[in-house]
């Protein structure tokens, strides 16, 4: 885009928005992800900022190339990777990122096993991610100050370099648990200063989890009996309170176990033919058989 | 003398933008890029030194350009070429290869003639630079 | 003749073998229900029956005469499994737009052919039938060689991929030129032309088809001079260079002697002419592989039988035979040169030579699906009246795996042979660069050349001299076949 001298001509924001097709991606976001209201709001805000920045550049105004690196904090199963994918698309549509693909890695993909191994390994990942977005999950594992022979620091150095000097080539998103990420940033102010946008992913509310479960069941072509629906509500309440709750992922796991129990129930019923309805319906007992419904102390011991 | 190996040697040396455009073309075909360098430009020298392994699965030129900067900084006086490799069946070979750096001064080759029976001559080509040891061949 | 009774289906066995004369269709050579086996060799002939001859009977006759039939019934047929050895005409289509002409599809059992022998294949298919009186004209249009048969051949000794690896040249067509004048130069002067052209930027130079060993230049003197020139140019440029040394001779012994000398002198390539015959070509192919030399074939004499649409053998069949017999280069047409060449037909030839598999493509004259069973690819050569100003058209029509030969365009350059070679090389590299960058070279070609010419005086001179000479081919030439028939 060649900058144009500032004039009094008006720039059509609506047209710019339509041209970029960003609205479509945001609509997809709304459709495919349940809840996440605060996250979706943040995404919309960032998209607006980037769009306006583009228009400002066209008008010859510039606040310098915007910093785009981000951090996503929250518990597992709250949609961080999905949002990262959509963010990559939006950045691409708005022209901030050349190709718009997402490369998702963890510490093990970046850190080497012996001296001299780390730099080429990290650089290889970076090369693959260039033109798109690099998503580093549980980024704080890169920092292990207690182990002086740990090569994670090297990765951090390389990332700091690239995040500062090759902003046109790569956008980095760091992700992980909220408290651990803030400890990580506190110990690595250089990293913290390069992050432009912090987005927090709150846990899903119980009714959102319920909706997610129904959506999943629909996709899998199952349905719940009315008793099973009530059982599911209870299940979610109990499971949420327990440790290691991974939001949507935990719901998914629970549904898979319910399906297993349904299958065994149908099997052990013995004799007789099955109707389509039989095959599709999950009964309350398929859910209530879960450990979650047993005595909490006992279920802790079993874990 | 100007070594005219590689696909674009008869054109003026390519600018970084032109190199980038060629890399973009190679990525679009799904070819892997690799960088090689040498100070022995004999036409039968098939195995130049590899600067890192070939780069598979790239989506963007930036990665290659960074490597290119690196190799030029490390071996400014060597011949450096960029290869694009196609692994599809029926090819499994290099599809594009061009020089992206050359020594400032290229002394060229001597034709060595060994007279044999009758009027037969056995020929070989000898690079003047190769008279010096590896690493000391070009200023 | 021509009446319904002539189309009788084969009579029963006892009647079939009673002495006398039967119609071919009655002898069992017309079998419309026959489904060709995967191992059958298939052929499609364009037949023009004489006035009053039933086309089905004519097709059956072609099948018969190219396999087991004779004009009368013979009892000795009973000593054979005659059913198997009979070729079967299984399909007959009228040629669109040409009344009186028909496409006859014929299937041959694999056992009719000796493995790995083109001489036998051709003697079998075309050895007997072309003079047959009931046909006014006959043309072998296409053949399908089954994988079982393809596998009995070694194919090209080098192939496109290995050739490029030996030359270390990738990403662009190769450049060549035939030495001019065709005849009369002495060895030493001949070598001068070679040196100048290779030094200027061409990859190859070429003997012409009739340069063998004549009073004005003995072959040994030519070989010695050329190899001096080739190596001198290699040293000057740092590239691998070659000259197609023509080893065609009167006998195989002569040819082996010449080829051995070429090898001794270190040539990367030797050349043979089509007229040496299929047996000699296969021998030379084996020799080339044993000695790691590229084999170039000049298709000398082919147009005596490939050019007429109604009679002869189509060049696409020759291409197939040559890929099997095993040559590395073959001249296959230019489209935009001085010689008339329908772009569709030429692309058909190129596809046969270069692709791992050819689907049915009636528009390009490919009547059968042909699987090449990983047989190596032949590099097509485009030669004849082309010049640097056509580079964008050549690249578009012919692609990248091709040798472009600019004889006159190199040697006739106003600034000299080296300049001519340089002009062609710069034009080619500039066009490839632009194509890779995403330019529409078909339309922007002239601008791209003009821009490159700004840094290259020889190219500028070439464009000024020949720039207006375009056999500007707007491909509207309709192929003689409009795809209406169902693929076989």
Main features:
heterotrimer, A: 303 residues, alpha/beta, 5-stranded parallel beta sheet, two-stranded parallel sheet, 10% strand, B: 139 residues, alpha+beta, 4-stranded antiparallel beta sheet, two-stranded antiparallel ribbon
Number of strands of chain A: 7
Low-confidence spans of chain A: pLDDT under 50, at least 5 residues?
Answer: 298-303
Number of helices of chain B: 2
Shape of chain B: globular
Structural class of chain B: alpha+beta
Based on CA atoms alone, the radius of gyration of chain B comes out at 17 Å
Strand content of chain A: 5-15%
Structural class of chain A: alpha/beta
Greatest interface by residues involved: B-C, 43 and 40 residues
SSE order of chain B: HEEHEEEE
- CA(first)-CA(last) distance of chain B: 15 Å
- Helicity level of chain B: 10-25%
* Overall average residue pLDDT of chain B: 95
Order the strands across the largest sheet of chain B as they lie in space.
2-1-3-4
Write down the secondary-structure element order of chain A.
HHHEHEHHEHEHHEHEHHHEHH
Q: Kindly provide the radius of gyration of chain A, computed on alpha-carbon positions and rounded to a whole number of angstroms.
A: 24 Å
Describe the strand arrangement of the main beta sheet of chain A, using strand numbers.
Answer: 2-3-4-1-5
How would you describe what is shown here?
The complex is a heterotrimer of chains A (303), B (139) and C (488). Residues 298-303 of chain A have low confidence and may be disordered. Chain A contains 15 helices and seven strands. Helices cover 57% and strands 10% of the residues of chain A. In chain A, the strands form two sheets. A five-stranded parallel β-sheet of chain A has the order 2-3-4-1-5, sandwiched between helices. Chain A has helices at 13-20, 22-32, 37-58, 80-93, 107-110, 118-129, 152-165, 178-187, 189-194, 206-220, 226-241, 247-269, 276-280, 284-288, 296-302; strands spanning 70-74, 102-105, 133-137, 171-176, 197-201, 223-224, 281-282. Chain B has 139 residues and is of the alpha+beta class. Chain B has helices spanning 16-29, 62-74; strands at residues 32-38, 49-50, 79-86, 93-101, 109-115, 121-127. Chain C is an alpha/beta fold. Chain C contains 19 helices and 15 strands. The longest helix of chain C is centred in the last third of the chain and has 21 residues, at 417-437. The A-B interface holds A 98-99, 101, 120, 123-124, 126-128, 130-132, 166, 168-170 and B 52, 55, 57-64, 66-67.
């Amino acid at each position: 885009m060649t900058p144009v001298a500032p004039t009094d001509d008006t720039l059509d924001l609506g047209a710019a928005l339509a041209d970029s097709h960003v609205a479509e991606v945001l609509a997809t976001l709304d459709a495919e992800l349940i809840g996440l209201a605060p996250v979706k709001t943040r995404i919309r805000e960032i998209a607006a900022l980037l769009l306006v920045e583009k228009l400002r550049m066209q008008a010859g105004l510039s606040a310098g190339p915007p910093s785009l690196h981000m951090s996503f904090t929250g518990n597992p199963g709250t949609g961080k990777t999905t949002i990262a994918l959509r963010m990559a698309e939006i950045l691409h549509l708005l022209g901030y990122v050349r190709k718009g693909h997402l490369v998702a890695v963890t510490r093990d993909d970046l850190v080497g096993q012996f001296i001299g191994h780390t730099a080429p390994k990290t650089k290889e990942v970076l090369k693959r991610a260039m033109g798109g977005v690099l998503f580093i999950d549980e980024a704080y594992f890169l920092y292990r100050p207690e182990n002086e022979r740990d090569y994670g620091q090297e990765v951090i150095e390389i990332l700091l370099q690239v995040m500062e000097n090759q902003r046109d080539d790569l956008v980095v998103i760091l992700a992980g648990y909220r408290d651990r990420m803030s400890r990580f940033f506190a110990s690595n102010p250089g990293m913290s200063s390069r992050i432009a946008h912090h987005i927090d992913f709150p846990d899903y509310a119980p009714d959102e989890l319920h909706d997610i479960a129904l959506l999943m069941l629909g996709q899998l072509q199952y349905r719940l009996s009315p008793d099973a629906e009530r059982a599911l509500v209870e299940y979610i309440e109990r499971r949420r309170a327990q440790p290691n709750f991974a939001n949507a992922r935990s719901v998914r796991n629970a549904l898979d176990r319910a399906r297993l129990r349904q299958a065994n129930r149908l099997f052990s019923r013995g004799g007789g033919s099955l109707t389509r309805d039989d095959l599709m319906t999950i009964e309350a007992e398929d859910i209530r058989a879960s450990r979650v419904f047993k005595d909490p102390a006992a279920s802790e011991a079993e874990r | 003398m100007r070594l005219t190996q590689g696909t674009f040697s008869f054109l003026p040396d390519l600018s970084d933008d032109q190199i980038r455009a060629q890399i973009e073309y190679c990525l679009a075909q799904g070819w892997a890029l690799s960088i090689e360098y040498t100070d022995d430009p004999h036409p039968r020298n098939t195995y130049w030194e590899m600067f890192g392994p070939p780069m598979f699965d790239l989506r963007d030129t930036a990665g290659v350009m960074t490597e290119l900067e690196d190799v030029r900084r490390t071996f400014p006086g060597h011949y450096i070429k960029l290869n694009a490799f196609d692994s599809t069946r029926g090819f499994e070979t290099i599809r594009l290869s061009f020089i992206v750096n050359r020594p400032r001064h290229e002394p060229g080759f001597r034709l060595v003639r060994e007279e044999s029976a009758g009027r037969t001559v056995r020929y070989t080509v000898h690079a003047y630079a190769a008279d010096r040891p590896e690493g000391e061949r070009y200023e | 003749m021509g009446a319904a009774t002539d189309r009788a289906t084969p009579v029963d066995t006892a009647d079939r073998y009673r002495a006398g004369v039967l119609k071919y269709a009655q002898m069992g050579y017309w079998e419309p229900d026959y489904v060709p086996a995967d191992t059958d060799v298939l052929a499609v002939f364009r037949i023009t029956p004489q006035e009053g001859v039933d086309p089905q009977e004519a097709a059956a006759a072609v099948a018969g005469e190219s396999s087991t039939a004779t004009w009368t019934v013979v009892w000795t047929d009973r000593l054979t499994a005659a059913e198997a050895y009979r070729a079967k005409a299984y399909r007959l289509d009228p040629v669109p737009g040409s009344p009186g002409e028909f496409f006859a599809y014929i299937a041959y059992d694999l056992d009719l052919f000796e493995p790995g022998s083109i001489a036998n294949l051709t003697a079998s298919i075309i050895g007997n039938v072309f003079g047959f009186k009931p046909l006014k004209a006959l043309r072998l249009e296409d053949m399908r060689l089954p994988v079982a048969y393809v596998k009995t051949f070694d194919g090209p000794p080098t192939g496109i991929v290995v050739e490029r690896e030996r030359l270390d040249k990738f990403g662009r067509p190769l450049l060549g030129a035939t030495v001019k004048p065709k005849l009369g130069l002495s060895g030493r002067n001949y070598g001068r032309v070679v040196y100048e052209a290779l030094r200027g930027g061409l990859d190859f130079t070429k003997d012409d088809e009739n340069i063998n060993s004549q009073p004005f230049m003995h072959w040994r003197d030519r070989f010695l001079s050329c190899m001096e020139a080739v190596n001198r140019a290699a040293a000057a440029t740092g590239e691998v260079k070659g000259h197609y040394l023509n080893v065609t001779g009167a006998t195989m012994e002569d040819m082996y002697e010449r080829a051995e000398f070429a090898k001794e002198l270190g040539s990367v390539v030797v050349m043979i002419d089509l007229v040496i015959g299929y047996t000699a070509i296969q021998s030379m192919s084996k020799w080339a592989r044993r000695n790691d030399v590229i084999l170039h074939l000049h298709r000398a004499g082919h147009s005596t039988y490939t050019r007429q649409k109604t009679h002869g053998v189509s060049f696409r069949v020759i291409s197939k035979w040559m890929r099997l017999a095993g040559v590395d280069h073959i001249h296959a047409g230019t489209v935009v040169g001085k010689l008339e060449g329908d772009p569709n037909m030429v692309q058909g030839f190129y596809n046969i030579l270069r692709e791992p598999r050819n689907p049915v493509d009636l528009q390009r004259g490919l009547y059968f699906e042909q699987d090449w069973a990983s047989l190596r690819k032949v590099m097509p050569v485009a030669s004849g009246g082309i010049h640097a100003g056509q580079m964008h058209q050549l690249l578009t029509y012919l692609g990248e795996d091709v040798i472009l030969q600019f004889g006159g365009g190199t040697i006739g350059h106003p600034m000299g042979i080296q300049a001519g070679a340089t002009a062609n090389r710069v034009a080619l590299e500039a066009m490839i660069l632009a194509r890779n960058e995403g330019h529409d070279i078909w339309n922007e070609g002239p601008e791209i050349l003009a821009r490159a010419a700004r840094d290259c005086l020889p190219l500028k001179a070439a464009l000024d001299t020949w720039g207006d000479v375009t056999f500007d081919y707007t491909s509207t030439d309709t192929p003689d076949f409009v795809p209406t028939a169902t693929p076989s």
